[in-house]
Amino acid sequence: AMRHCFIYTPASYEVDLNKRYPVLYLQHGGGENEYGWAVQGKTGLIMDNLIAAGLAEEFIIVMDNGSWTMPRPAAGERPAAGQQGRRPGMGLPSGWADGFMNTLVNDIIPMVDAKYRTIADKEHRAMAGLSMGAMQTKAITMSVNDVFSKIGLFSGGTISAEEAANTPGFKETYDLVFVSFGGREVENPRGGVDPGETTAGLKASGVNAHYYVSPETAHEWQTWRRSLYQFAQLLFK
Question: String of b and e for 147-178 (b: at least 16 CB within 10 Å)?
């Protein structure tokens, strides 16, 4: 099938035609598409200003469509109990991110590496996302350990020290884990789990983990723009 994505390249990409670049794969949230980060997220403006100020390394950003839907029952059958009205993050079925993971790993990444001047190894490849995109990022990066080396979760869960310990090769593979939320999101954390404490525990276990809280914002684009601003400054140093 034909697909559409946005790809950000730094200004120098068209100047030094011999230079190769790391890549961040950046995913949108539920109910959105590849336009989210490119338009509402102001990704290009954020990166251009960070690079101009010397605060971030130059890298490519790929913003693709990771939308998915719950499996539908066969014609004439009723949905399974509890399946009606379910949203991402609320009782996700096993393997829910496998479809996009297959497309990302087997189609999108090879296409980008073939058509753009990338540094095509996991040390120079990161994945991040907001909300549903963060949950996809976690599901994918904890399923494959030879594709990415940096993880960014914006308003979409955390990774605990126990999860990292139970994921083969996690500490050897990932040299950066960034977790962020809006300040109003963490006033009453889901399930009473403090994401700051969870991330601190991950850091204490030996993982290079960072935690950021966006002041006075909720589950909204200002939180995620600020998160990208902070995360980008840590990448590929």
Answer: bbbbbbbbbbbbbbbeebeebeebeebbebbb
Handedness of CA 34, 211, 160, 47 (dihedral sign): positive
Q: Per-residue pLDDT for 215 more than 90? A: yes
pLDDT at 91: 64
Report the Cα 87 to chain-centroid distance in Å.
Answer: 18
> Can you give the pTM of this predicted structure?
0.91
DSSP 70: P
- The DSSP 8-state label assigned to residue 80 in this structure reads P
CB 125 within 8 A of CB 147: yes
Q: Are 216 and 187 in contact (CB under 8 A)?
A: no
Can you name the residues that pair with 126 across neighbouring β-strands? 24, 150
Quickly list DSSP for 179-209. EEEETTTSSS-GGG--HHHHHHHHHHTT--E
